[in-house]
Write a structure and sequence with these properties.
By secondary structure, this protein is mostly beta strands. It folds into two domains: 100 residues, Sandwich (Immunoglobulin-like), CATH 2.60.40.10; 100 residues, Immunoglobulins (Immunoglobulin-like, Sandwich). It is built from two helices and 18 strands. Belongs to the type II cytokine receptor family.
Length: 214
């Protein structure tokens, strides 16, 4: 068993990091190195860069999990934020572990678009839908990521399922419905798409494959 003066260091949370997808933002950390640390409870605070006072995150005050949802605390997406976590065990508190600075607009990952494929005899219609943020309009619908960024759709065709890597870019732009023409009947075609953000040179992951036989 650890001496009590070692306990604060040994339970101090490690690797405090923001993870963010489409502005759904979660703080993650790892427990301290002591075996006992798995029984620790955690306390999370956050603030905007430059503010002097830290805010408690009430839903993440004395929790046993290793993550905390800060989506609504970081909703001013141009602001830089910090968060910090400390652990408590047997009445002993660790020091705070600080995250890196996190600016949602610059650092959130963009998710892939939703893709729907409709085929006719020699062409494929591809319908694209950008991912949504968690933030809502006054009427209650979620705001699409295209409201926050200048985003392009990139659409790729896979002619040969044996060679998945052989994706051919057939469209890049903002249209939500595109038509791919002059295809061969009887051939299986698969479509994947991703979002591309020219300004920050970020791409999303690929969407799931939508396949059709003409």
């Amino acid at each position: 068993v650890l001496e009590n003066q070692d306990l604060p260091d040994s339970i101090k949370p490690q690797k405090v990091e923001f993870h963010s997808l489409n502005f759904n933002t979660t703080l993650h950390w790892q427990p301290g190195w002591a075996r006992e640390a798995r029984d620790a409870l955690y306390f999370v605070q956050y603030k905007v860069y430059g503010q002097s006072t830290w805010q408690n995150k009430d839903e993440c005050w004395g929790i046993s999990s290793h993550f905390c949802d800060l989506t609504y605390e970081t909703s001013d997406i141009q602001e830089p934020y910090y968060s910090r976590v400390r652990a408590a065990l047997a009445g002993v508190y660790s020091n705070w572990s600080l995250s890196c600075r996190f600016t949602p607009w610059r650092e959130t990952m963009i998710g892939p678009p939703m893709v729907t494929v409709v085929h006719s005899n020699k062409s494929i219609m591809v319908k694209l839908q950008a991912p949504h943020s968690p933030y809502k309009r006054k009427r209650g619908s979620k705001i699409p990521m295209t409201n926050y960024y200048d985003l392009l759709y990139q659409v790729f065709i896979i002619n040969n399922l044996l060679d998945e890597k052989n994706r051919v870019l057939v469209y890049e732009g903002k249209d939500k419905v595109i038509k791919i023409q002059d295809l061969r009947p009887g051939v299986s075609y698969c479509i994947v798409a991703k979002m591309y953000m020219p300004m920050l040179d970020h791409s999303s992951a690929y969407s799931s494959r939508q396949c059709t036989v003409l």
